């Protein structure tokens, strides 16, 4: 729980195509740094921002996420986007978690690249009145004391945020956006897919259960 005494629940969405150790290390660091009671990994069924990348079936990606987080009681899995018809929009997911955990503080975790495109997301100005946001970077990006609202926020949001402290900006609703760096692990889903397609070992790229699932289901092979 946070200082307010309320439960703290995190949402970490992504394509997870497939999930790998880089995702899991980010989840663990964010969960610990923000004292989250639980961080839910939420595979996207139909990501609206993905192009022509080969995406495994939603049920397969969900199964791999469940296998990957086994043994960590602080991580959960939600099938809310996989079970929803249509594209996976973040505002719908945030509202789902607010209803599922009434009274809890909700934290939505996203990467720096996604943050840079936030102005293209559906109903994005409404996000910040609903939850706190954690923007992560695996490239060692760190904010300086003089980073301004103008340099970090889309034009439509600049009048709604003010600087609170290094790496933290407060929305007019009282919710906050946190910018934080996490450990860089040079693994990507595209690397895992490439190795799987070449029938090479996935050891130390993904958890054993995920590697076995990819092999058994012949995912990402030509």
Description:
This protein is of the alpha/beta class and 222 residues long. It has a single domain (8-187), classed as HUPs (Rossmann fold), CATH 3.40.50.620. It contains 8 helices and 8 strands, in the order E-H-E-H-E-H-E-H-H-E-H-E-E-E-H-H. The protein has an 8-stranded mixed sheet with strand order 3-2-1-4-5-8-7-6, sandwiched between helices. Helix 1 (21-33) links the parallel strand 1 and strand 2. The protein is globular and about 50 Å long. The relative contact order is 0.18. The model has no long low-confidence stretch (mean pLDDT 90).
Q: What is the CATH top level name?
A: Alpha Beta
* CATH T-level topology: Rossmann fold
Count of discrete structural domains = 1
Percentage of helical residues? 25-40%
Shape: globular
- List how many beta strands DSSP finds: 8
Which segments are poorly predicted (pLDDT under 50) over 5 or more consecutive residues?
none
Q: What is the CATH-assigned architecture?
A: 3-Layer(aba) Sandwich
Sheet of most strands = 8 strands, mixed
What order do the strands of the largest sheet run in, or round the barrel if closed?
Answer: 3-2-1-4-5-8-7-6
Beta-strand content estimate: 15-25%
**SSE arrangement, N to C:** EHEHEHEHHEHEEEHH
SSE class: alpha/beta
What's the CATH H-level homologous superfamily?
A: HUPs
H/I helix tally: 8
Gyration radius from CA atoms, angstroms: 18 Å
Mean pLDDT over the full residue set? 90
- Note the gap between the termini: 47 Å
Secondary structure: elements and pairs:
Blueprint: E1 8-14, H1 21-33, E2 38-43, H2 58-68, E3 75-77, H3 90-100, E4 105-111, H4 112-116, H5 124-127, E5 132-137, H6 149-152, E6 161-165, E7 168-171, E8 176-181, H7 189-197, H8 208-217
Parallel strand pairs: 1-2, 1-4, 2-3, 4-5, 5-8
Antiparallel strand pairs: 6-7, 7-8
Helix pairs in contact: 2-8
């Amino acid at each position: 729980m946070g200082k307010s005494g309320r439960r703290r629940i995190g949402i970490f969405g992504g394509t997870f195509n497939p999930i790998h150790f880089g995702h899991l290390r980010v989840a663990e660091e964010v969960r610990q740094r923000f004292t989250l009671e639980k961080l839910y990994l939420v595979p996207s069924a139909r990501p609206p921002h993905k192009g022509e990348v080969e995406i495994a079936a939603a049920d397969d990606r969900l199964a791999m996420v469940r296998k990957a987080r086994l043994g960590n009681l602080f991580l959960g899995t939600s099938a809310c986007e996989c079970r929803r018809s249509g594209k996976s929009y973040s505002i719908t997911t945030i509202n789902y978690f607010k209803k599922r955990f009434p009274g809890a503080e909700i934290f939505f975790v996203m990467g720096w690249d996604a943050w840079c495109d936030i102005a293209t997301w559906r109903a994005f100005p409404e996000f910040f009145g609903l939850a706190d946001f954690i923007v992560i970077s695996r490239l060692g990006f760190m904010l300086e004391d003089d980073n301004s609202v103008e340099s970090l926020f889309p034009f439509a949001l600049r009048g709604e945020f003010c600087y609170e402290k290094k790496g933290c900006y407060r929305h007019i609703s009282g919710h906050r956006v946190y910018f934080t760096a996490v450990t860089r692990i040079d693994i990507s889903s595209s690397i895992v897919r490439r190795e799987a397609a070449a029938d090479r070992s996935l050891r130390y790229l993904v958890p054993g259960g995920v590697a076995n699932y990819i092999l058994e289901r012949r995912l990402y092979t030509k």
